[in-house]
Amino acid sequence: MTSTPATTVVSRAHRVFRHLPRFRFGSGALSTFPLEAGVLHDYGDVVGAYENPPGVDPALVVVTDWALGSIGANEHRWILFDDIATTHGPAEKLVDDVITIVLKSGARAQMRIAGGDDRFKDVYSFVRFIDRVVEDRKCAE
Question: Which parts of the chain fold into alpha helices (H)?
């Protein structure tokens, strides 16, 4: 784990997500999604959660102060911020809603952020958030 960055994940989340109606701050954002006891313990304190539109998997993307959690119907996947090398946003701005996360190991993971309005897709806020958090952590090393 790296040293604590000057700008916290909580601060970054508030700056980026405060205007997204699908993002709820605090651990109460998880109240409608049952998680196994202790599943969050390894990933820090809950900052908030993003709820994808109905029928989209993952149903929920959890942000903690150490990681991103993709909570789907059949799978819970966690990605530590310290393991992220870079991200790539959607190739097709009007169609795509998937972030590709490249890990330092070279592995790739995808995360779907499907909400938005007629003018802006929420996926771009998530790309910006992840990029800023990763950069904060690099600067703190």
Answer: 9-17, 122-140
Mean pLDDT confidence for 61-79: 89
Q: Which domain holds residue 34?
A: 9-140
The Cα–Cα gap between 6 and 132 comes to 12
- The answer as to whether 115 is a domain residue is yes
Task: Give the CATH number of the domain where residue 130 resides.
Answer: 2.30.29.30
The answer to whether residue 68 is domain-embedded is yes
Cα separation, 118 vs 6, in Å, equals 35
**Share of the chain residues as helix, strand and coil, in percent rounded to the nearest 5:** 25, 30, 45
pLDDT digits (tens, 9 = 90+) for 110-129: 999 999 987 789 999 999 99
